[in-house]
Design a protein that fits this description.
This protein is of the alpha+beta class. Helices cover about 25% and strands about 25% of the residues. The chain is built from 2 helices and 2 strands.
């Protein structure tokens, strides 16, 4: 793994949602210096959405092809 133990942190939060079912949420945090070491940083143009999301059929096709 490219990150040291003090450079990445993850947490899991669980709870009952409005539909009455249990849900879990992951929170992953990576130290900014560790990302910069990999050539990544928040100021990069690719770190932001720059165009519209692909159409719904594209997502459905990707799901079908993933299996």
């Amino acid at each position: 793994m490219p990150f040291g133990p003090d450079e990445i942190r993850w947490d899991l939060s669980c709870g009952i949602g409005p539909d009455g079912h249990w849900h879990g949420w992951f929170d992953v945090r990576v130290h900014p210096d560790a990302l910069r070491r990999l050539g990544l940083h928040p100021g990069q143009p690719t770190a932001e959405i720059t165009s519209a999301s692909p159409p719904g059929w594209w997502h459905a096709a990707a799901e079908r092809n993933a299996h």
